[in-house]
Specification:
With about 450 residues, the chain is an alpha/beta fold. A 4-stranded mixed β-sheet has the order 22-23-1-24, covered by helices on one side. Helix 10 links the parallel strand 18 and strand 19. It is globular and about 60 Å long. The two termini are about 35 Å apart. Bound molecules: uridine-diphosphate-2(N-acetylglucosaminyl) butyric acid (EPU). The site of uridine-diphosphate-2(N-acetylglucosaminyl) butyric acid (EPU) has 26 residues, from helix 1, helix 5, helix 6 and helix 12.
């Protein structure tokens, strides 16, 4: 098991290149199960989650060929319908095979994913949506078993107590593309990753209207073909890199970026004092290059994570790390995953002042964090700890970075290209438990920030 050793206090500079969006590429990969032709994807990040889904798809009869920056997927055996617990338990997003499997193979047995560190994550809305399309659904021995000779279009309401569901919308939308008649999804998720899946499905021959709005109208077609598709840039990785610049008082550039996907994040960061300049991208006309300039000290603010177009819950932890250093008192509330605060205790170990109050955290900004041994609990929490370590005085050790590698493509290398100092080394403890104090070097010098 690897860990990061981060020498904090360096200013970042240069150009960072964000990869394709993890949460778009996963349901798009799964959509091959509903297709009769190959799917050629580009802009695919090299992530553990992408490899895990590749393995799961291979176990479902899909040939998966990794290409430079891309994937070629094609169904070679459509008789397989069981998504096994051993793979599904390592990645919740595996549930996105349920809709396409059911729609094309008429039967799906998908393991229930199990517990999650960011809070309670039911799939009742996925099942409700598929049942509305006529699927017979039961849960047996830890597996969802869904069957339907032919799905039929229906009106489905996918709103839940915390808004819509991203992967639930992906599942029902993909299944409905092959249903007989028209499906209307009310309270659909509007996240750019859902739109990206919908656009890819339309390229495959689907007929989906209303992408990016809460009402999707899907006219069923008899089959989906193959296509080539380029995945959107990862807005969460972009936000994480922007916060890396902000937390170190730096000036960097990011390219390619879809600024339209970042409205709430840029607005919040502007209110703290970060400045942005947008120019055309060198990559594609619909992408931009973003110039980020951060002051030495930021202002405190209030943040509430909400479904898109609100502040994404997937940036809540990174923003919390940033606000630990802002001038004044900040409040961070997570309305999507109200218990997603495991990173707060680790930030406190670095000198942050955070008090939890229900689904909110109240943060009194301190002028400086100090390097410490910390432990990642989930993907975005790991990113928050790396960001805090970049700004901290001295050396930090971030353990359990396998969480980070699930969703960030070599973040250490990307940050080092911006002149951070992050070493990836084997964890001598292996288990990820709190490390020996000799990793901390209080006398480590601070470059740049002082
Ligand atoms: N919910 C229900 N019932 C359901 C499904 C969801 O009540 O059937 C609730 C959840 O408990 C949660 C809220 O609805 O409170 C939103 O959950 P959603 O289903 O939208 O989450 P998800 O689809 O499981 C995706 C991302 C997450 C991201 C959330 C919210 C993927 C693969 N995962 O999860 O990404 O946090 O949407 O935006 O797309 C991450 O990348 O770190 C990550 C966790």
């Amino acid at each position: 098991m690897d860990m990061f050793v981060v020498e904090g206090g360096r200013r970042l500079t240069g150009l960072a290149r964000p990869g394709g969006a993890k949460n778009a590429v996963l349901p798009i990969m799964a959509a091959v199960l509903a297709a009769d032709g190959p799917l050629q994807l580009s802009g695919v990040p090299d992530l553990t989650d992408v490899r895990t889904l590749g393995q799961l798809l291979a176990s479902l009869g899909v040939t998966v060929e990794r290409q430079p920056e891309g994937l070629l997927l094609a169904v070679s055996d459509s008789s397989l319908v069981v998504a096994d617990y051993e793979l599904v338990r390592t990645m919740r997003a595996s549930i996105c095979v349920l809709g396409p499997l059911l729609a094309r193979r008429r039967r799906a047995c998908v393991s229930l994913p199990g517990g999650c560190n960011i809070g309670h994550r039911p799939i009742d809305l996925h099942l409700k949506g598929l049942a509305a399309l006529g699927a017979d659904i039961r849960v047996e021995r830890g597996y969802v078993i869904a069957e339907a000779d032919r799905l039929r279009g229906a009106t489905v309401y996918l709103g839940g107590p915390r808004g819509s569901t991203v992967t639930g919308t992906c599942n029902v939308m993909t299944a409905a593309t092959l249903a007989e008649g028209t499906t209307t999804i009310e309270a659909a998720a509007c996240e750019p990753e859902v739109v990206d899946l919908g656009e890819c499905l339309n390229r495959m021959g689907a007929d989906i209207e209303g992408l990016g709005t809460p009402q999707l109208v899907i006219h069923g077609v008899s089959e989906l073909g193959g296509t080539s598709y380029r995945v959107i840039p990862d807005r969460i990785e972009v936000a994480t890199l922007i916060i890396a610049a902000a937390i170190t008082g730096s000036e960097i550039e990011l390219d390619p970026v879809r600024v339209a996907h970042l409205g709430a994040v840029l607005d919040i960061l502007r209110s703290t004092g970060v400045e942005f300049d947008v120019t055309g991208s060198s990559e594609e006309y619909s992408h931009q290059r973003l110039h980020v300039t951060a002051p030495a000290r930021l202002r405190a603010t209030e943040i509430t994570s909400l479904p898109y177009p609100g502040v994404p819950t997937d940036v809540q932890a990174q923003l919390m790390a940033l606000l630990c250093l802002a001038d004044g008192t900040s409040v961070v509330t997570d309305r999507v995953f109200p218990d997603r605060f495991l990173h707060a205790a680790e930030l406190i170990r670095m000198g942050a002042q955070i008090h939890r109050e229900g689904s909110s955290a109240v943060i009194s900004g301190v002028p400086r964090l100090s390097g410490a041994n910390v432990m990642a609990s989930d993907l975005r929490a790991s990113a928050a700890l790396v960001l805090a370590a970049l700004s901290a005085r001295g050396r930090s050790v971030v353990r359990r970075i396998y969480h980070l590698d699930r969703g960030y493509e070599r973040l250490d290398e990307k940050l080092n290209r911006l002149h951070a100092s992050i070493s990836r080394v084997a964890d001598p403890l292996g288990t990820g438990s709190a490390g020996p104090p000799h990793w901390i070097e209080p006398s480590a010098t601070l470059a740049g920030l002082d």
